[in-house]
């Protein structure tokens, strides 16, 4: 597919990495020649310098023959104008715009025809939704949805008191009392593909495939008291904090927001009547103590500064807050930071990229292309969902007869609404959704890529 | 420095070169030319052996590399490729001196066309074919060919852009389509298409099949190796005119042809570089024609005068170096025009050499702007080409390119003048110009009717370097030769 990406910032370059790897033809537009130069040095893409809403620049980028335009510049208005202009030049063009300002949320939805938008992504709101999802099951560090929400891969940290400690994997079902499959484990910063004899140790992070309806049972049986979160402290008062507070207040959760800037505090207090808004510098421990951080069920660090978020989260963890979530703007540092006691990590850029990637995959309609891709285990492994089709090899054969590539694991097979955690006898048939976890470097773009040829 | 990936690329180029040697090898079998056959078999054997060793050494190469590696790798590939390419001449014994053989093939790959041979016909068909075909490979670039055929391997391909930039001529090389491989493939498709067209027209012009292929390769690469001792003088006027037109066509930026394919005719007509290029050709032809009319026995009529002047102008500005007459006998004014054309050269992104029309254009515009600024110091003015602003960095790069170019001319001129042969000033200067700008023949003792054989080995080596400097546009060779490239510490 021919894709144009306007805005070569963080999201732009993450998308570039994703799509150029998947074999699409990419053209990037940005008004900063240095950013473009460093991108074309790393990826096989073309670049056009200039204002992305200008017809001439769009023409140079080949908008007339493009299939999709993604606008991810820093300015919402520019993104909208760029989509409208491009769509005017090529009526068959799909457009995706990143819109962050809450004020535009309504207009971009109800006037999406006028703005010629196929999809809008709001990283701030996505972040808020993701954190809200995590707060419903405190105990999971991360949740990734597959098979239209039927299956999830959740991340569990094994601590000293966990009943999972020192258990081999083949004994696991007697503890959990529900069907699960450990598809990857992160031990001392390294991702491993476990087999039945793998013994769980303290400090491991397990990535578990489970049916979405069994999550509560799983949590209870592995010793997490699924106490409902009642009081949440949000550090930082940006747009994502606003969205999150709004969601939590609607669920009846108490919210306290700590924000440094007075005018922003006033604005938040005006927009969120139910929330407690406190003016204060969260980098000072005294402020956090004054606001009773120790009494909170959850602390979410989501200021604009990654460093401050990490420090706040480490402090919250130290203060024995049961659930800590950290927002990180720069996704590159995930692997290092995942080893620090910062709780769950949420990366808006990654969420945004995943949403766009899902749309592109659906649109591409390639035979056998991935439906969903999530990176797990600190980016060292990927979980990929495919739909088995007529071209897939080895359908109807039991798994034990099929030779898979090294470090590839079939994590689940969804047949209709029926979820199978595969063993040697399991088979997949046309129409099934299958989740693959790849723990190596092998590029998996099609389902057939997992078989040894 | 990522030496492993450089070795990997080098080994692929050697394998490609061996494949390119198969047609002349078959010709040598067909013509029963045993020494040439031995030469090609040795060359293929050695290249493949070296390539296999390099493949093994570089089996786990990391793909990441940067501008510096791209430059060094390109220069290295050209030097090693020439070493392999000169073996058929050397081993067959047709060119007994290694430096001479090396000079001949570098002259081929860099599309110079300067020869050390006084009798080219004694080389035999197989070696003549290889000599001409080396122009065709070197014209668009062997690495660009490599880029066009390697399978796209996804994420790391961006790094290969450095190679395209190092090998393709012009101040700002960029892709025409998002995929590098497709860009390289488009260049080669246009190149092959034009070459095929040239061959067809030459065949219509009643050239023997072998000559048609070799002359077309020389025209396409803007090289200039002929297959007859008389150059192009004995060919039909029609064939000479066809060659004139195709030389000019190969001197045009290839992205112009891509625009034509995309039907962007207006942009093509308005392109400043193309306009200037054809204006220079037209003016030079008119001046030379009026100057040489009735001057020599060949230029008694209007038609031959125009034909010969147009042919020579096209041959020199595109840096091909074919000749239909001995232009060394022309009046001084005509020769002066030709030597100016040697400087200018063809368009960027073509197969020609020289400083390039676009650089001359940029330098001129920059000079006008700077001169204007002396009187109006506070006026802010920018340099535009085709309506778009030229980044200041490009102007600075162009100026430093010119400075480096002048330094190379001076140094080479001094060393070549030291030659024990004690040649005339015109000979030495035009020899440096003809090799650095990849033209071929110069004036006086290296004129169209003579050759470079009389120079000493040192002068030949300097000229070999000049040819490589000219074809790769200085910086890859500078990167290869500068000590800071190999320093491990900061």
What are the key terms here?
heterodimer, A: 453 residues, alpha/beta, Alpha-Beta Plaits, 4 domains, 6-stranded parallel beta sheet, 14 helices, 22 strands, B: 490 residues, mainly alpha
Low-confidence stretches of chain A: none
Instruction: Report the principal-axis shape of chain A.
Output: globular
Percent helix of chain B, as a range, is 55-70%
Total helical elements of chain A: 14
Question: Could you tell me the mean pLDDT of chain A?
Answer: 84
Q: Most extensive interface, residues per chain? A: A-B, 18 and 19 residues
Measured on Cα atoms, how large is the radius of gyration of chain A? 23 Å
Order of helices and strands of chain B: HHHHHHHHHHHHHHHHHHEEHHHH
The CATH level-2 architecture of the largest domain in chain A is identified as 3-Layer(aba) Sandwich
> Termini of chain A, distance in Å?
27 Å
Q: Quick one: biggest sheet of chain A?
A: 6 strands, parallel
Which regions of chain B are unreliable across 5 or more consecutive residues at pLDDT < 50? none
Provide the CATH top-level class of the largest domain in chain A.
Alpha Beta
Please identify the structural class of chain B as seen in this structure. mainly alpha
């Amino acid at each position: 597919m021919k894709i144009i990406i306007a805005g070569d910032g963080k999201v732009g370059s993450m998308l570039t990495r994703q799509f150029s790897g998947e074999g699409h033809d990419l053209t990037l537009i940005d008004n900063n020649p240095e950013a473009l130069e460093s991108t074309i040095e790393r990826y096989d893409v073309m670049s056009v310098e200039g204002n992305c809403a200008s017809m001439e620049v769009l023409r140079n980028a080949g908008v007339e023959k493009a299939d999709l335009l993604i606008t991810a510049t820093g300015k919402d208005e520019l993104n909208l104008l760029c989509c409208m202009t491009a769509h005017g030049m090529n009526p068959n063009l799909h457009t995706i715009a990143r819109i962050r300002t809450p004020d535009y949320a309504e207009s971009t939805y109800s006037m999406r025809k006028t703005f010629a938008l196929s999809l809008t992504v709001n990283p701030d709101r996505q972040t808020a939704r993701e954190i809200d999802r995590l707060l419903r099951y405190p105990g999971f560090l991360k949740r990734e949805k597959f098979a239209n929400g039927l299956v999830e891969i959740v991340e569990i940290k094994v601590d000293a008191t966990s009943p999972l400690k020192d258990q081999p994997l083949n004994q696991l079902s007697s503890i959990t009392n529900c069907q699960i499959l450990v598809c990857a484990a992160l031990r001392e910063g390294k991702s491993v593909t476990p087999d039945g004899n793998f013994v769980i140790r303290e400090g491991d992070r397990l990535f578990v495939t489970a049916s979405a309806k069994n999550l509560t049972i799983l949590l209870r049986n592995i010793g997490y008291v699924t106490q409902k979160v009642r009081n949440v402290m949000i550090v930082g008062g940006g747009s994502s904090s606003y969205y999150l507070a709004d969601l939590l207040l609607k669920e009846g959760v108490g919210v306290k927001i700590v924000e440094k800037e007075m005018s922003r505090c006033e604005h938040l207090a005006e927009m969120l009547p139910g929330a407690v808004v406190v003016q204060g510098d969260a980098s000072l421990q005294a402020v956090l103590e004054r606001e009773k951080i120790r009494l909170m069920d959850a602390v979410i660090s989501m200021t604009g500064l990654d460093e401050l978020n990490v420090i706040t989260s480490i402090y919250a963890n130290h203060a024995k807050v049961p659930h800590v979530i950290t927002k990180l703007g720069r996704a590159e540092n995930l692997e290092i930071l995942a080893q620090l006691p910062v709780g769950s990590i949420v990366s808006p850029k990654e969420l945004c990229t995943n949403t766009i990637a899902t749309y592109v995959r659906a649109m591409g309609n390639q035979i056998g292309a991935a439906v969903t891709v999530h990176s797990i285990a600190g980016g060292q492994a990927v979980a990929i969902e495919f739909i088995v089709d007529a071209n897939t090899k080895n359908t109807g054969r039991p798994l034990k007869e099929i030779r898979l590539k090294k470090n590839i694991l079939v994590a689940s097979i969804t047949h209709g609404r029926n979820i199978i955690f595969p063993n040697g006898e399991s088979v997949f048939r046309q129409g099934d959704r299958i989740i693959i976890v790849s723990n190596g470097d092998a590029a998996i773009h099609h389902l057939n890529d997992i078989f040894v040829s | 420095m990522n030496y492993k990936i450089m070795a990997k690329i080098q080994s692929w180029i050697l394998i490609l070169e061996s494949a390119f040697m198969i047609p002349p090898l078959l010709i040598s079998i067909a013509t029963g030319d045993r020494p040439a056959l031995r030469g090609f078999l040795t060359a293929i054997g050695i290249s493949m052996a070296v390539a296999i060793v390099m493949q093994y050494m570089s089996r786990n190469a990391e793909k990441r590399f940067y501008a510096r590696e791209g430059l060094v790798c390109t220069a290295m590939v050209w030097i090693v490729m020439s070493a392999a390419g000169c073996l058929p001449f050397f081993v067959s014994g047709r060119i007994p001196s290694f430096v001479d053989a090396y000079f001949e093939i570098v002259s081929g790959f860099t599309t110079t066309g300067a020869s050390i041979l006084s009798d080219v016909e004694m080389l035999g068909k197989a070696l003549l074919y290889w000599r001409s075909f080396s122009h065709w490979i070197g014209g668009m670039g062997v690495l660009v060919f490599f880029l066009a055929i390697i399978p796209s391997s996804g994420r790391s391909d961006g790094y290969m852009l450095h190679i395209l930039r190092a090998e393709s001529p012009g101040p700002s090389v960029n892709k025409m389509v998002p995929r590098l491989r497709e860009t390289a493939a488009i260049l080669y498709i246009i190149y092959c298409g034009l070459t095929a067209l040239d061959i067809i027209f030459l065949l219509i012009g009643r050239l023997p099949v072998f000559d048609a292929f070799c002359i077309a390769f020389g025209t396409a690469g803007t090289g200039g190796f002929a297959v007859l001792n008389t150059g192009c003088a004995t060919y039909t006027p029609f064939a000479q005119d066809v060659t004139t037109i195709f030389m000019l066509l190969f001197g045009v930026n290839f992205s112009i042809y891509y625009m034509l394919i995309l039907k962007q005719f207006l942009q093509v007509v308005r392109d400043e570089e193309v306009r200037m290029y054809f204006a220079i050709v037209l003016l030079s032809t008119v001046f030379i024609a009026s100057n040489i009319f009735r001057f020599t026995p060949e230029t008694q009529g209007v038609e031959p005068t125009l034909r010969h002047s147009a042919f020579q102008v096209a041959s020199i500005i595109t840096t091909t170096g074919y000749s239909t007459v001995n232009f060394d006998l022309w009046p001084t004014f005509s020769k002066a025009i030709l030597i100016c054309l040697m400087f200018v050269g063809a368009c960027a992104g073509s197969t020609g050499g020289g400083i390039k029309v676009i650089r001359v254009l940029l330098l001129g515009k920059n000079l006008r702007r700077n001169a204007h600024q002396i009187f109006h110091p506070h006026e802010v003015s920018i340099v535009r080409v085709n309506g778009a602003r030229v980044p200041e960095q490009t102007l600075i790069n162009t100026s430093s390119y010119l400075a480096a170019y002048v330094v190379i001319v001076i140094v080479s001129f001094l060393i070549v003048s030291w030659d024990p042969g004690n040649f005339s000033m015109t000979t030495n200067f035009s020899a440096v110009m003809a090799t650095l700008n990849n033209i071929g023949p110069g004036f006086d003792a290296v004129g169209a009717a003579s050759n470079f054989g009389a120079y000493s080995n040192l002068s030949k080596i300097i000229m070999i370097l000049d040819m490589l400097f000219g074809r790769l546009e200085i910086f890859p060779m500078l990167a290869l030769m500068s000590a800071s490239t190999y320093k491990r510490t900061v």
